[in-house]
From TrEMBL, chains A, B, C, D:
Active site: C154
Pfam families from the UniProt entry: Semialdhyde_dh, Semialdhyde_dhC_1
Role this protein plays: Catalyzes the NADPH-dependent reduction of N-acetyl-5-glutamyl phosphate to yield N-acetyl-L-glutamate 5-semialdehyde.
Catalysed reaction, written as an equation: N-acetyl-L-glutamate 5-semialdehyde + phosphate + NADP(+) = N-acetyl-L-glutamyl 5-phosphate + NADPH + H(+)
Source species: Paenibacillus mellifer
Similarity remark: Belongs to the NAGSA dehydrogenase family. Type 1 subfamily.
EC class of the enzyme, as a word: oxidoreductase
Protein name: N-acetyl-gamma-glutamyl-phosphate reductase
Length: 350, 350, 350, 350
């Protein structure tokens, strides 16, 4: 490091993912925010839309020119919508920049799968191959030194961290997996629609996109990779009246008489040395607020003797471990820094 | 009716179930609240604890003497805790009163099952046999003229109304049922504990009593009765940051290639003439706020071709269809009145 | 009445005021909803946007033709935006209909004042004169038999009911009035803007339109009418993270050594026979949830000896007493029915 | 610093103030948490009650022995209830420790005033004199090198930072000050009472302790000190359904024709070099969420020409600038470190 900070830019700074990136980068000891970019609002102050950053981000928003950007910064975070990243990221890579992409555009290895679920044209196959899927606790070792990291989705992060150790150990039947996922409202972003209207979702709970969510192929691709065979899941998403937080309650048939203690031991071994996954003690369950504002993923278990079914509960903050926090974790891994750099924040409780 | 109203009393008026009973009875054309009873607060105004009833309930709270009560009223609602009803209800019946009990004490036919799950002594077997399980849309015809109705629990009501038509038709595998239930905080009552503290549960989501909730035997007893064989379910309960509302997301293996349209038709036929169950159109899902404050149970479906699994979502207001509203519905059925009397209120939205 | 119901229509049925009108009219013994009108969505089912009314409102939305409407109904509720009512209401009146208007268009007697605050062209002066300001507890006697009632705004209702008795008695200095008003989010309607976005206003509190709210002239007009001299107020509006409810905390200099008991007595006398205003006992304060879903306005007081200042707190449900409920109350008064007809609902608590 | 960290202990670690202190100290570069103390729960893991600190605070809770503590640490934060600190703090000081006290016990210079408002015995007068009132932006220069800092209350912090510049400049009439304060629920602490019950305060707004809050003498003492004459305020406190955040809307009569621009300039000059106070631009108002989780106090203004009244709005996070954050700020000032050390966190938004 010899004292010099790595220079970073954020594209798509006017969304929730963008301002969370700023929160973590502002306190990061080895990185410096050099450019905060919004194509649609270039020249305006970021604080018009986000006054909480008053006197923190004082320069106006920049426009986007990949060549000029490459002269100023080393790494770009693209917190841009699906379909936009697909076109933008190749330009940034060709300009010599490293990219951590927070959209869904580079997560699926099979472009036709992407097009079926996202309804946008897929990036060229070469880029899809090049991209590392940055689920840090699973594929973190592959991130180091890479040019393009595809940051996982929020639901897949909570789901996969909760399922992989048991699936990898062969303890659960891959054909039996049901994921009942619940998310706070910020997961849908800052765009306006009636579902996000306070009077509509406060004191309310909704279910949506049952078995149709675009995060399904990302989950199945990764589970299939771990299981060594295709995996098909049942996946339900719910909207809960809170701003942040994802809880995934997952069900699978156990392939043996494993107890909660067995599972705790298995998971603690699997995640040893990975400080952002915390396995609850037997009989304890994680709650979303216990990871609020932080990069943790907390996990708990119940193995039911009566039915032979395993229940796994995992929680994350969708904007942190499910987006900006994991992106910073990937920056750390990419640059060879300590994984927790700039992320060593306790959850904000209560 | 010849113009005279049936006289009713409420025991346990200082809980949420009690004040909801008052809400519905105050506007009921054939019933009159004659006594509002609280053993612990007798002599005090109800409005000390519930000022929203100022100038509505003006008499002080009464104490409880079954004989005297029998001289004044015809029907008693017991919104008393588990263990209390077990002792109180027989006294009321013996005094010649009709009783609608909102506790769990008379729901299980097998007293030892009750004792295992509730940790209280069970009522005498005769009373357990006498009690009708007042799940109105299923067993409503048996309620008419009965002396003792055991009002179903909130989770069982949402669960059973969602599962019974498909189970009864033999369309789902009884061994495959998983119930992922979510409830607002009022379900835990007005008693204080840290879980109910606003700062702890606001902007939070918790999971609790996984496979251990005392409503499980009530669900399994009824499903077993419908299926004609013992049924064991996986049952998870979650606490969601809202005051009212239950959503049950239920999963089961389909025994044939049934489509959503088939299910909608099956359920609409099953519930024909039952105005409080509403089956959503294909592709639409119910939300808890769409039944807020009302006696409706709304249901939606997804049948997944890929996995052969059925997803059923049912919602109720836990304090209405899950407690006081269904109790009034049972009063109506018991007395031979129109099922909707005093309950014809639209949901309060937004 | 001779058994026949008065036929009513609602224009602007796709807003929150509209569906609240439906809630109260559905249970109203003397009124029948004959037409539910939305110019923009004519022909579509109302339940597309408001599924909570499934199986309750089954006919599709009607378009609007004043002549045809006059052939079918007796009274029209116009829950239309400011500027729209100004043009529509005269047409309805000319077609022979009675109108209860929920917009701000007919509240100000001085058209130029209207234009200054609302930025729309005012209705013709004749209509402004004809309109009765339907603050039911104050001007209710003038409503009977009228053709056009202008239903008060939500903030003015809470403010005026809280201030008028003390002002009318000459107990407070009209020049000293400060109104610190707080509202739930539904007051801003169903239209989308960033302020209503759940993630923005949940766990947040905002202040807006300080001394600039369009309800100010309506408050000052009425206070001036009561005081017999012009009154200028300081008026601050806040947005609170809840769906329903307005609380107005009001400050004024006392003109004598009046105690809380004096005030309670004054107010109870003033509102005698007016069942929807409830004055709290000494030392008790009203909370917004204690009127949730109901037509009540609850009021409490503190008289501070140290400063000679009076603090008045009044609460209403902005969509009920502040909109649809008071409109039904005005229908009752207009038709000569009991004031509480169809409104005798306890607050929904908790 | 020569590399060695200052050793600190927290007494009263099982409240919200305590865990917020841990949040800031865990990331503080010059301080190290050596002991986490709870008299009532000594020996138990802190994470039993606060699982969000799993794998962060792993040692069990310590008991309290001032002599032994003095051998281990340099500075103690006492986040103990009023009445407890009064007795404890003198013992800690006598053992040679520096103390930052978060209770109200050392804020009032006049012990009899303390006893009148707090209903506890006051600490000895010598300790009251010795204590510096740590309102950092106003009295920060006096904190350096002191042994005992009395950390201000949450309401006083928001109130005083909002009023002092205008009062100090003689622009407002001290006799005219009205403070309409609103707070999130965490301000009442973790103790259970019905007011904190989620079902009671969600979707609700309450007013309490009107002109009777124990923070009033602290506000009046400081305003009197600034004004050079006794100041009496009208002070209303409200409970708002959110976890964190205080908004004070304050009213005062202007003594001249000052504009919003004048006020902005005055305040920005007054707080120059004080990074935690942010003055909003003309026409912009702060919202509580814009300081959530951070140590900022944001302020906005409206000067009303019609009434000559000034409206000031100030917001803080009650647990941060109103408690733990300001305590850390006082630690920094006490030790001669940069004021922002360990506090340079952006608000958590949304």
């Amino acid at each position: 490091m010899n004292g010099e900070k790595v220079k970073v830019a954020i594209v798509g700074s006017t969304g929730y993912g963008g301002v969370e990136l700023i929160r973590f980068l502002w306190g990061h000891p080895h990185a410096e925010i050099v450019s905060v970019i919004s194509v649609s609002s270039a020249g305006e102050p970021l604080t018009d839309g986000f006054p909480h950053l008053s006197e923190i981000i004082v320069q106006p928003l920049d426009g986007l020119n990949p060549e000029e950007l490459a002269a100023k910064v080393d790494v770009v975070f693209t917190a841009t919508p699906s379909g936009v990243s697909a076109k933008l990221v190749p330009q940034l890579l060709e300009a010599g920049l490293k990219v951590i992409d927070l959209s869904g555009d580079f997560r699926l290895k099979d472009g036709s799968e992407y097009e079926a679920w996202y309804k946008h044209e897929a990036p060229a196959a070469g880029f899809l191959e090049e991209a590392v899927y940055g689920l840090a606790e699973i594929y973190g070792d592959e991130v180091k030194g890479k040019e393009l990291v595809s940051n996982p989705g929020c639901y897949p992060t909570a789901t996969l961290l909760g399922l992989i150790p048991a699936l990898s150990a062969g303890w659960i039947d891959p054909a039996s997996i049901i994921i009942d996922a619940k998310s706070g409202v910020s997961g849908a972003g800052r765009g306006m629609n009636l579902t996000n209207h306070y009077a509509e979702i406060n004191e309310n709970m909704k279910v949506y996109k049952v078995n149709k969510h675009q995060h399904i192929p990302e989950i199945e691709q990764t589970l299939g990779h771990i299981a060594g065979e295709p995996v098909t899941v049942t996946f339900t998403t719910h909207l809960v009246p809170m701003t942040r937080g994802i809880m995934c309650t997952m069900y699978a048939q156990l392939k043996g008489a494993y107890t909660e203690e067995d599972l705790i031991q298995l998971y603690r071994q699997y995640y040893e040395g990975r400080p952002f996954v915390r396995i609850r003690d037997n009989g304890k369950w994680p709650a979303t607020k216990e990871v609020f504002g932080s990069n943790y993923c907390d996990i708990g278990f119940a193995a039911d003797e009566r039915t032979g079914r395993l229940t796994i509960v995992s929680v994350i903050d969708n904007l942190v471990k499910g987006a900006a926090g994991q992106a910073i974790q990937n920056l750390n891994l990419m640059m060879g820094w300590e994984e927790t750099t700039g992320l060593k924040l306790t959850p904000v409780y209560p």
